[in-house]
């Protein structure tokens, strides 16, 4: 039998009281990044980008680059788009398939993007099958050092609600935006106005994604790269995911929520929890929490640590919001009123025409993730 309400109001009040000391109002209110290391502050390099337009020709950026992004309108995406890289030896590598997925804030046209990790000694790249697409070569290591202050990690807890998980207990531990080095200046225009003001809606669903890009050894840099592409290159003003999970199972705070609680407007209560609207599934962004795994799972599965962490994340989010992971729901877009039947805990491809979160992972998602989430909440 499905348990549609995982926490009673009384139990929730007890379980969520533990959040108060863990999340003071200033816990995630990061100050805008400043150039140069401040005394005792963490530092991270500013992400750099160099743009081009896809024409099928070889592109040799002036800056050293770690990855490239290909972005175009969803209706323009054609099968067979590929990329290859030129190395310092002057040789061209093998062609690699580009895996596009559609996202973006609801107030902007949707964008289909694909990411590809460049070899260490890449000097150029060539994209075919996507003429006219916007290309960005991204450097995550050589920009000026920015200083960050504020708490590096915070927690969301449903411990007292009786939720159990396979790893990490019932506490969702997050690396904050300040902790991974979010350049908060990217969220504002030249006049200091926020580019993507926060909207909040009662949570109806959770959706899982992958970045479709090979990761590096520096996963905070991977998150900064995705943030830069979303916030600056695509002009969204922020990252499109609420949370991100790296191969080691570390969870990163994504979209800025505007307060002291990641993801939510205030301390969440089941059935009442309001999440900030992000940009991970165009047309389904409102009231839908997006969790993204770092990596490309087209042909391989996420690490065991990443899968266990994702299960933990989804269980705690379900407990905090009252979303039933075993349910098929009528998702109602709070902005348009359009109703769509879908899984409460869904894969990105369940909502839109996309390969995300990768063919290999998508095939085992029900047993490897959803059923484990359900079993931990019954």
UniProtKB/TrEMBL annotation:
SUPFAM superfamilies: N-acetylmuramoyl-L-alanine amidase-like. InterPro entries: Amidase/PGRP_sf, Amidase_domain, PGRP, PGRP_domain_met/bac, TAT_signal. Residues 1-22 form the signal peptide. Pfam families: Amidase_2 (PF01510). The keyword Signal applies. GO terms for molecular function: N-acetylmuramoyl-L-alanine amidase activity; zinc ion binding. It comes from the Bacteria. This is Peptidoglycan recognition protein family domain-containing protein.
């Amino acid at each position: 039998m499905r348990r549609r309400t995982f926490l009673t109001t009384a139990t929730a009040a007890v379980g969520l009281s533990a959040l108060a000391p863990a999340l003071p109002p200033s816990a995630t209110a990061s100050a805008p990044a400043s150039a140069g290391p401040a005394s005792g502050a963490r530092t991270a390099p500013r992400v750099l980008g160099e743009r081009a337009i896809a024409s099928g020709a070889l592109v040799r950026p002036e800056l050293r680059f770690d990855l490239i992004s290909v972005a175009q309108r969803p209706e323009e995406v054609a099968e067979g788009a590929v990329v290859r890289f030129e190395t310092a030896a002057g040789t061209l590598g093998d062609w690699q398939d580009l895996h596009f997925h559609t996202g973006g804030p609801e107030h902007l046209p949707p964008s289909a993007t694909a990411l590809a990790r460049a070899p260490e000694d890449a000097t150029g790249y060539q994209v075919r099958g996507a003429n006219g697409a916007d290309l960005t070569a991204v450097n995550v290591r050589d920009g000026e050092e920015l200083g960050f202050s504020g708490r590096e990690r915070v927690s969301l807890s449903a411990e007292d609600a009786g939720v159990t998980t396979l790893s990490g207990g019932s506490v969702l531990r997050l690396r904050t935006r300040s902790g991974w080095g979010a350049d908060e200046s990217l969220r504002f225009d030249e006049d200091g106005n926020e580019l993507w003001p926060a909207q909040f809606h009662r949570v109806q669903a959770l959706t899982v994604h992958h970045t479709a890009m090979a990761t590096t050894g520096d996963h905070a840099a991977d998150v900064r790269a995705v943030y830069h592409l979303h916030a600056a290159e695509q002009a969204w003003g922020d990252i499109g995911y609420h949370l991100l999970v790296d191969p080691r199972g570390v969870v990163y705070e994504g979209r800025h929520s505007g307060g002291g609680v990641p993801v939510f407007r205030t301390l969440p209560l089941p059935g009442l929890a309001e999440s900030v609207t992000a940009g991970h599934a165009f047309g389904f962004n409102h009231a839908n929490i997006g969790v993204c795994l770092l990596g490309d799972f087209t042909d391989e599965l996420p690490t065991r640590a990443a899968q266990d962490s994702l299960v933990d994340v989804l269980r705690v989010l379900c407990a905090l919001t009252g979303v039933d992971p075993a349910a098929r729901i009528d998702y109602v877009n709070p902005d348009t009123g359009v109703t769509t039947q879908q899984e409460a805990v869904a894969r990105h491809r369940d909502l839109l025409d996309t390969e995300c979160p990768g063919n290999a992972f998508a095939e085992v998602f029900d047993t490897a993730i959803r059923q484990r989430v359900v079993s931990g909440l019954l």
